[in-house]
Design goal:
By secondary structure, the protein is an alpha+beta fold. It is built from 4 helices and 8 strands. It folds into 2 domains: 2-141, no CATH class; 142-174. The strands form 2 sheets. Strands 1, 2, 3, 4, 5 and 8 form a 6-stranded mixed sheet that branches. Helix content is 34%, strand content 39%. The chain has helices at 2-8, 32-40, 122-135, 144-173; strands at 14-19, 22-27, 45-54, 59-72, 82-92, 97-105, 112-121, 139-140. Keywords: Membrane, Transmembrane, Transmembrane helix.
Amino acid sequence: MLDQVHAATAGTPYVVKETPHGFDMEIDIVDAQWFNLMRLNGLKRVFTYEVKLDEEQQKFSITDVAHSVSWDAGAGSDGPPTLHREQSTERGRVYSKSFHIETGVDARTGEVGTPVDYRFDSNEGRDIIRGVLKENGWSEQMGTEQRIGLLVAGLTVVALVVVGIVALVMALLG
């Protein structure tokens, strides 16, 4: 199965790494092709999709991990750029879409062009994973962070309803 995920990511900016519970799929910042694209376009986030596999039940969960990053020019103008990871991390289901388009006139030819046309959609990575696993008979379940998020949201709604009822009773009783 991991071979099929590797094959599905061929030609994409993703790399797949096996983990004890399944695999991670993340942007391949080591590959100069993708690293330079990210650096030149000033991207601020790096995504990792943590996939946990339950072999016995043929179920999987995907946890998105979005790290904020910053770019540094390195030792000098000819030095290699370096990636610094900030402290900001989001886990669970992270929906993100971004694009960067630049249009300009070439100083030598005078022609109008679009030298930069970059788009990112966090659904793309999940769709690659889902496609391969569902094709092989696996079904998706919520990850731990998603279940905790739903529980917290449910408890918040219950607390707001209780506070609203108490406030209404107090207003009616004066």
